[in-house]
Amino acid sequence: MSLEPLDGLFIRDDDEGLFSRDIDGQLVRLDSPTESDYGKTVTMQIDGQPVTVPLAEPLKDANGNIVQDLEGRTTPRYTTIYDAARKLYVKQSGDEAKIPIPTLCHLPHMTPVAVCRLCVVQIYGTKRGKRAGERKLLPACQHQVKEGMEVFTMNDPGKDGDRVRQTVKVMTEMLAVDHLKPFEPPSLDRELAPFNELAQAADRCGAEPARFDLDVFSDPPPAAAPKVGRRGLDASSPVFLVDHSACILCDRCVRACDEVQENHIIGRTGKGANAGISFDLNEPMGSSGCVQCGECMVSCPTSAITFKPGARITIPASDRSKEIIPPAELISDHIFSGISPKFLLWQQGLVIRRRMKPGEIVCNQGDAGNTAFLIRSGKFEVTVKQSDKKKVVRFQLTPADAFFGEMACVTGMPRTATVTALDNSEVWEVRRNVLDRIMRLPTQRQRFEANYRARALDLVLQGAELFKGIAEDEFRKIVNFLRPRLTFVRVSPGQTLFRQGDRANAMYLIRLGHVRIGVRRFGKETGVLSRGPGAILGEIGLLAISPQDIRKTADEVDDALAAAFAGAGDDLSEAVEAGKRNATCSALGSLEMARLSRVDFLQLAREFPALRRRLVEQSLTVLRGNLDGNPLLREYIEHGLYEGQKLLALNMDLCTRCDECTKGCVQQHGTESHGAPVTRMLRDGVRFGNFTIATACRSCSDPHCMTGCPVDSIHRGKHLQIVIEDHCIGCGLCASNCPYGNINMVSNERRLVELPDPADESKTIILPQLKAATCDLCDAEGHRATPEPRCVSACPHEAASRMSGEELLRRVLEEAEGKSR
Questions:
Q1: 5: pLDDT confidence band, cut at 50, 70 and 90?
Q2: Does pTM surpass 0.70?
Q3: Three-state secondary-structure class, residue 702
Q4: Which H helix or E strand runs over 616?
Q5: I want to staple 770 with a disulfide (CB 3.0 to 4.6 A). Which of 107, 171, 730, 752 is the partner?
Q6: Spatial distance between the Cα atoms of 710 and 26, rounded to a whole number of angstroms
Q7: DSSP for 130-159?
Q8: Alpha-helical runs (H) found in 334-485
Q9: Cα–Cα distance between 229 and 248 in angstroms, integer?
Q10: Strands in 562-622 per DSSP E
Q11: Could you report the per-residue pLDDT of 133-191, keeping only the tens digit for each?
């Protein structure tokens, strides 16, 4: 279709790509946006409605977090027309359907690729000072906004809107005639059919796919060769079904696998009519490296990828206070309306309704936090006991507060408060996987982020070793000073925070995770330490304290700093010379920290002399005590023992290798979980001092195994133990995530699945589905006040014991010190 020129109206013919044209029609280069573009605004019109948006926005990850480097810098990206339409039409959760720009290949958290072309719009701009229209319809999901731009969507009643409507209709018809298929398996089709986005797009634009049925115009195309991109039904996975004939090549599954989960399993293969998605080197899904996370299935807009019916979470019939909320109710609720219905249908049982009576406790302080709570009705009292300050804080929550418990759910840490119902109330208990999806919704993310950051900041400051013992009034003043100045930084495992010898430019407070600290002397690493939640990093370099200051007293160093601050004005950047880092710090796992810039740190040190004195004392203590090069500390870090909270330590001076610990483990668990005897431990393991650390779950402080479970079947128990639930799908992700080999994938004889026979695809075989197995301290249900692991009680020589990494290190160091005397 062509756009007829009007009198005095130029027709633009701009190419999409690296160049565009200015108002005089000259080609200009499109450079990448910068952070300064955040402050620039663009006013444009969409179907005659004005909207003002920033020229650029910071890049965000799949959970809505702004991506930052260690210096707090962001990655700018230009605001698109689709972004502007979202701002104009989406005022609250559920308004996404009002956006007059249909999409099949785009989701807000993915990089736009503009391959489906259903989001095309008519654009008018300015050329040589006059209003001019683009010759081509352009994709709104990818095209950046410009000042004065006029955009017409399929909602426009004029000829521009008609052009868009007719174009979208034809494209939808061409996709639907080949790829609009029923969902597999047929038992799920009735539930899933209403949520086929291709069918929704066809209904929205009044498409008639039958007009393009190939049988009307020509003979059917020849059958494709085997194992090309366009395969048929792939049922090789025990969890998912792939119908390649329903794939529209939107690439959403590819970006979900690559960008969101970073698994890099799915890509494109083939050419022309044989193009399609593939797993690894075009293997069946079940034979590939797929971890069955489900991100591709949730992202797929058609029936190309769906799930097989599997085990569900169940609630004992005797517990009438809990009820699994059906997916239909969740889909219709405004909180969940932006979440893929496919996901809610797949994850049935992960949202539970709890009806509470006055006085009933929702959760206790110190309990494992695996869920968040959505307040639907009633009133609740929150009680926080601060043991170190002997103070109890109380406040109330109502439905206006929406959620509580989300911090513990997100972090996997114990509950920080006790919540009690004050009247007849109802809460929806939400598991981590569903909460993660809610937090991805732009309309919900802002609320979550504000609450989480404020509460997490309080926890950072309360738990930091730097502030322990400070008077309440002084602590409040410090908190008020830091609150607007601290920012959160998330760091990937293995990433280096700073290197020894670098100029110090910030202080960090560890919120979650652990940091490896390596000290080099005379060209080699002589000291290795670890720091966990509550520790501070970088204060030594910011105060410009060097190893030469070890001979000075704390008074001498503090007096020198006070004198430097007294002689400085408002700008403290020159008051104290920027010192150098005294160690190299890197993340031992996923890490979250609060960051304070050098200027703000110096101002903090000047305004709070008592805190400065404590910083000086701690700095001198670190320099004097952490440079001894103890090889035991290096082993302690390298073996990850610092993470363990319930290490199974075997004293080799007492152990006779009778293996009663392993036998007791098998007898305790029996056949209940897997239908056959399974051991949760092996007596073999790493050696540390006179102890062997057996291969058994360590109950890590930051459990790697819980990351990314597709169906949220792994969680902490009452004693911080790791518990595997019966609805485990056997993907093996937890086992691969555990760096210590403490989770095994074992055939579950209680659940059999039907799979294609690899030797003959026309036949099927029945195999037991895999299920993870790990130590749960012999109390998965949390019935005991204290755990009683059978491996410990079964040892006839008292060689086996459970202890934390810190306790193990202390005992080994004491033993080593005793031998050296």
A1: very low
A2: yes
A3: coil
A4: helix 609-625
A5: 730
A6: 52
A7: EEEEESS-EETTTPBP-TT-EEE-TT--SH
A8: 341-346, 406-411, 432-440, 442-463, 472-482
A9: 12
A10: 584-587, 591-597
A11: 888 899 999 999 999 999 999 999 999 999 999 999 999 999 999 889 999 888 888 88
